[in-house]
Amino acid sequence: MGHVYEMLEMPHYALYYYKQAHRLRASDPRVLLAMGLCYEDLARWEESKKCLKRAIAMKDPEGTAIIRLA
């Protein structure tokens, strides 16, 4: 659901569902990456950085988090 809301450019709703997904799969860096991007869309820079750094620490498979932080 988070991805659907992200595609509809509704980051508040997307973030809600990504947080739910993170509770279920806390070890998945892709969820943290998605949360970081939603926070970025909402101009919540500190929360975005925190999520992206955690995704990097969890070995983000695509390396997208490190690119977004740069």
UniProtKB/TrEMBL annotation:
One of its GO terms (cellular component) is anaphase-promoting complex. InterPro entries: TPR-like_helical_dom_sf. It comes from the Eukaryota. GO terms for biological process: anaphase-promoting complex-dependent catabolic process; cell division; positive regulation of mitotic metaphase/anaphase transition; protein ubiquitination. The keyword Cell division applies. Gene3D superfamilies: Tetratricopeptide repeat domain. SUPFAM superfamilies: TPR-like. This is Cell division cycle protein 23 homolog. It comes from Geodia barretti (Barrett's horny sponge). The lineage of its organism: Eukaryota, Metazoa, Porifera, Demospongiae, Heteroscleromorpha.
